[in-house]
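Hi all, long-time lurker, first post. I run a small reading group and we've been trying to get comfortable going from sequence to structure in the token notation. Rather than ask abstract questions, I figured I'd post a concrete chain and ask someone more experienced to write out its structure so we can walk through it together at our next meeting. Sequence below, copied exactly:
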Amino acid sequence: MAAKTAGARLEERWREILTVHARTMCEIDRVLHPHGLGASDFEVLDILVAEAPQEGSQCRVQNLVGRVHLSQSALSRLIARLEKDGLVERSMCAEDRRGVWVALTRRGRELHAQVLPLQRSVLARMLGDR
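-- Answer (accepted) --
Happy to help. Here is the structure in token form:
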């Protein structure tokens, strides 16, 4: 049997990464679904908690674009849905009329705190050392 080429090993590793990512995202979706959230919803809330830790602090939507794996339009739709659900608030940036600020509401912070252990448990189970 011929030894695997470096390219074949890289391809195999890449497929393993994609598989772990897909399974982990599906499991996060499953555990968060009863709370009305999906994995991408949680990612936005989690980043907002990190970027704007104080109640009332804001984050520019543009700062989220490179940190979540969604297109800018998909991120805008997700933020609109979170706003409709009362989890975030949006406002226009006074300095740059094209800019939009987003802030967690108290309800958004409370829901994030409630589901954080669920998400972290999935990460530990799916990504922890075996």
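A couple of things your group might point at:
The mean pLDDT is 90.
The CA atoms of residues 87 and 110 lie 9 Å apart.
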